[in-house]
Structures are given as C-alpha cells and as structure tokens.
Amino acid sequence: MAHADAALALAREHPYSLATAEVQLTYLHQYRGEPDQTLRRARQAAATATAHGFPIRAAQAAILGGWARAAAGDGHGPAELRAELDHPYYLGLLGDAVGRTTPAEAGLAVLEEAIELVGTARPFYYLPELHRLRGDLLARDGRAAVAAEAYRRAMEIAAGHGTRSAELRAVVALCRLPDRARPPQAQAELRRLYGQFEEGFATPDLVAARALLGRS
Asked: pTM to 2 decimals?
C-alpha cells in the first residue's frame, strides 16, 4: 500500500501515469478483498481515464467497479464484467460476481474457463485465487468434499509461488467447511501461516484468520 500511495503521488502531474497508478491501486484493493475501497478507487480511476481519453484504463476501472458492486450485493455488478473478458484474472472476477448473484453452476463454468486459460505452462499470480473461488462456489452448492480439494489445490499452488496471502485465504476457506469435509490439520496450518505475518492485521484475510483461531 505504501508503494501504491507513493506511485500515486509521483503520477499527479502526468495524466496517463495517474490513470495507471489509480487502476493499479484499485487492483490492490480488490486483491485485498475490500469492495468499498475498490469501488471508490475504481470511480476515481474511471473519471481520470475518461477525462483524458484512455479507454483501456477506463475499461479496467469499470470491470473492477463491477466486481466491487457485486461483492457488495448489487445484482447489476456482473454486467460491468462481461465485455471482452479473455484474461484469466477478469474471468475470475466475473466468475466470483456471477456466483454471488446466480446459481453456482454459472459461476463455476466461468472459473473453470479461466483455469483452463491459464494452463500449466506458466506461473500466474491469480491461479490460487481461481481455485479458491471455485471452492467457494462448490461449498455454497453443498459440495463440501470437492470444495476441500479445490482449496487444497489453491494452497499448493500458492505455496509454490510463495504467495502467503493467497495461501492464507485458501486455508481460511478450508477451515470454514463442515467438520466432515475439513481436514484435521487445517487449524494447525492456519495457525502456522498466521504466525508468518508481521503486518496488515486489520486486512480482511487476517481478521478472518484471527477470528477462526479465537484470538482477540
């Protein structure tokens, strides 16, 4: 966040740099799971991009704003995400948004398309999240055992990438499954990962982890 704020300050005098920095800050809030901040930043980024004629940045802001509205319970949010989405990250946002407002199968189809699009030839930072989101929809659909497999896959990929936040988010989801589907070591794994963080304890992921661990 400090780097993102610094980039924003440096970009003030150059419109394209400013639109880019605002979009990147919006991405960061989305990745942190903060829909209110995402929507606020998306609106600002869209205003800057539109005022100066940067259509790609405006489209990115609209997509992120659509996710934020869906995450906040607005059924119209997914409509913002449907335009020419061939990037796995955007498809992941669409799958999440659709899954919040329609039956799980529709969102699962989009997430599976995104996972297939990533393939296996390259590491992709959002792949653990795609598997976790797939697990969330499976869990919501009552398929807890299959959801557990998706969460474990997300944890495995995140650990391989060294992305602790994504790994923690998948473990938190795993710990929320019913007893019959939750592995006995899940709580210990959550405790181990939580202990590796040194900052960011007010972020949604760490707040959720602390609640599951029964910490104040």
From this structure: 0.77
Q: Domain containing 61: what range?
A: 1-80
For residue 150 the two structure tokens come to 């998706």
Tally of structural domains, the chain:
2
Give dist(CA 17, CA 8) in Å, integer.
8
pLDDT, tens digit (0-9, with 9 covering 90-100), for 106-127? 999 999 999 998 876 667 889 9
- Pick left, alpha or beta for residue 33 (phi over 0 → left; psi -120 to 50 → alpha; otherwise beta): left
User: Which of 79, 101, 92 has its CA nearest to residue 169?
Assistant: 92
pLDDT digits (tens, 9 = 90+) for 130-167: 999 999 999 999 999 999 999 999 999 999 999 999 99
103 and 179 belong to one structural domain: yes
The confidence score (pLDDT) of residue 17 equals 96
Distant-in-sequence, close-in-space partners of 66: CB < 8 Å, separation ≥ 6: 77, 78, 79, 80, 81, 93, 97
Which residues have a Cβ under 8 Å from the Cβ of 115 and sit 6 or more positions away?
88, 127, 130, 131, 134
CATH number for the domain spanning 155: value is 1.25.40.10
> Which of the four pLDDT bands, split at 50, 70 and 90, describes residue 212?
very high
